[in-house]
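ugh ok fine here u go
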Amino acid sequence: MSFPITAVSPVSAATPTSFVGPTAATDPTSGAGFASVLGSVEALQGLQSTSSSLAVQAVTGDLDDVHDYTIAAAEASTALEVTAAVRNKAVEAFSEIMRMQA
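structure:
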């Protein structure tokens, strides 16, 4: 059984704005930005579970092409790194805001 691997555009995967809050087109009070961040986390979770299932298939010998696992693992790793970097920047910005004097 083979799982489909979807290609991720290098621009969308590397651009932190796809993981960040509301854009100019959305209402900041609507919560749409937070919902998009949660959607990104769900996408990351999906990439990691695909990678894990392909790893199990590779170990058991059920995977026809090991390159599928390699690509899935690289996608999951890159998505995790981007998500962690965006989170770190958000925490850094929040800390800077908290240091401001009123």
